[in-house]
Design brief:
The structure is a single chain. The chain is α+β, with helices and mostly antiparallel strands and 289 residues long. The protein is built from 10 helices and 10 strands. It has helices spanning 115-121, 137-149, 157-179, 187-196, 203-209, 214-225, 229-247, 252-258, 264-275, 279-287; strands at 4-7, 33-42, 46-50, 57-64, 66-71, 74-78, 82-86, 92-97, 103-111, 131-132. A hairpin with a 2-residue loop joins β5 and β6 (74-78). The longest helix has 23 residues, at 157-179. The protein is globular and about 65 Å long. 30% of the residues are buried.
Length: 289
């Protein structure tokens, strides 16, 4: 994707594109309000500096490259899969480092009277805390749906954006609670797994992605994800199987193929091992509820 941004012009406010706080609103009358959002794909090293900070909250989710954040004489680094949330009126200065690859990140500015309570509810700490998250397709998708909502210029847009941001924050909180700290160290291979789990994936290939031997990779994967990679693949496939069983009229054989199993009997055996019943009985029992 190319770099882009979406701004909402506050009512009766003159636009000033030279103002660093353009698109920044401090609002307490609304529970949650999106001011602006976008995506950066930078292929050159540059510094972003705002000595006064913004009036609203500033969320950054880094999906590629590296960013250095300056705190006086010290420097904090954001790596792929890291997320931060700057509180209002907090000065910030950061440098996008593009020596090896483009720096790509999603961002959103938001405000509202219930922001702090929502962030506390979803266990999303403010900067200087750095949240370690896998590169996650669900989070990417939430951002993209949020961007699409800016294009609908009607009376419902602010409410729609607020609801979509809330869903995004929930998704981030959910990922953090289920993956736990440290999984970002394996983000490339885990992302590959999430995107290709229906294919014939070899653990040796996953280890190569992270530049590890298979034994070390298995140890790290189990430590940071909580289960061996083979079990993780089965988990993803079974989640897809359940979705297809309950939301489609596909045959069990077709579902087995879509989940990555060419052998229908083996698929049934794995499914029964996970849930205690066959796919056919699972569909019958749950569709009757």
């Amino acid at each position: 994707m190319k770099t882009f941004s979406h701004y909402l012009k506050p009512k009766n406010e003159k636009l000033d594109y030279l103002d660093l706080n353009f698109g920044s609103r401090e609002v307490f009358s609304e529970a949650l309000l999106v001011n602006c959002a976008g995506y950066v794909n930078a292929n050159y090293t540059h510094i972003n500096n705002n000595p006064q900070g913004r009036l609203d909250y500033y969320l950054i989710y880094l999906v590629s490259g590296e960013i250095e954040f300056f705190e006086g004489e010290s420097i904090k680094k954001l790596s792929e899969g890291d997320l931060i949330i700057y509180p209002p009126k907090t000065p910030y200065k950061y440098r996008c480092i593009t020596d090896k690859e483009n720096v790509q990140f999603f961002w959103v500015h938001f405000t509202g009277g219930e922001v702090l309570s929502l962030l506390e509810k979803y266990k999303l700490n403010l900067y200087p805390h750095i949240h370690k998250i896998n590169i996650n397709n669900h989070i990417d998708a939430r951002f993209k749906v949020l961007f699409d909502a800016f294009a609908v210029n009607d009376a419902y847009r602010d409410s729609d954006l607020s609801a979509l941001l809330n869903r995004l924050l929930i998704e981030i909180g959910r990922v953090l609670s289920t993956e736990g700290p440290g999984t970002g160290r394996l983000h490339k291979s885990v992302r590959y797994l999430n995107e290709n789990f229906t294919e014939n994936i070899k653990i040796t290939d996953l280890a190569k992605i992270e530049n590890m031997c298979m034994t070390t990779y298995n140890q790290h994967f189990k430590k940071y994800v909580g289960t061996p990679p083979t079990k993780y693949i089965i988990k993803l496939r079974m989640q897809l199987a359940i979705d297809l069983l309950l939301s489609s009229e596909l045959s069990i054989q077709e579902i087995a193929l879509r989940c990555g199993y060419n052998d229908y009997n083996f698929f049934t055996k794995v499914f029964k091992g996970e849930f205690g019943i066959t796919p056919t009985k699972y569909r019958k029992d749950f569709k009757q509820r």
